[in-house]
Design a protein that fits this description.
Layout (H helix, E strand, L loop, with lengths): L1 H4 L3 H96 L3 H7 L1 H23 L22
Helix pairs in contact: 3-4
């Protein structure tokens, strides 16, 4: 049969090796092509994921910048409040010094001995006001049991 084609055995083997080599190269190129297509698909999917993550991060950054502005505004308000409190505290300290100066010029013991009713009425009125304020704050049912204006104590119940 080889004689009919006019080919020698060596040429036939070389042709077979050439065909096998060509098929191997074509198969290798096909596998490489498929691998590159798969890599391309994976890269495209990763690109889509990254674009989504970028949008999310952009929104988070924008929200953080807005929050930072709100925090700066709140900090300014707090600083103004602190300055106001400092001013009020200074005024209160000045008033305390003024009242201490006034009280240091008066001898309250001598005044109480000279005019006992004056001091007692003021102390009693202050005590009533203190108890009233305490009652209002606690919303309790405080009964006065002693002192000026106290309600009389109820007699203990007798046992039959």
């Amino acid at each position: 049969m080889l004689a009919l084609l006019g080919l020698s055995k060596v040429k036939m083997i070389a042709a077979g090796v050439g065909v096998a080599l060509a098929l191997g190269v074509i198969t290798g190129l096909y596998i490489l092509n498929q691998s590159l297509k798969l890599d391309l698909i994976i890269s495209m999917a990763n690109t889509i994921k990254l674009k989504g993550a970028l949008k999310t991060q952009g929104a988070a950054l924008k929200a953080a910048q807005e929050n930072a502005g709100a925090w700066r505004s709140a900090l300014g308000d707090i600083q103004q409040s602190m300055e106001e409190l400092s001013r009020v505290q200074s005024e209160a300290a000045a008033e305390t010094r003024r009242l201490n100066t006034i009280f240091s010029r008066h001898d309250l013991s001598a005044l109480a001995l000279a005019k006992p009713g004056l001091v007692e009425r003021r102390i009693a009125a202050g005590s009533r006001d203190a108890f009233r304020v305490l009652h209002d704050i606690t919303a309790g049912d405080l009964q006065r049991t002693s002192g000026v204006g106290a309600a009389p104590r109820a007699a203990p119940a007798s046992k039959p």
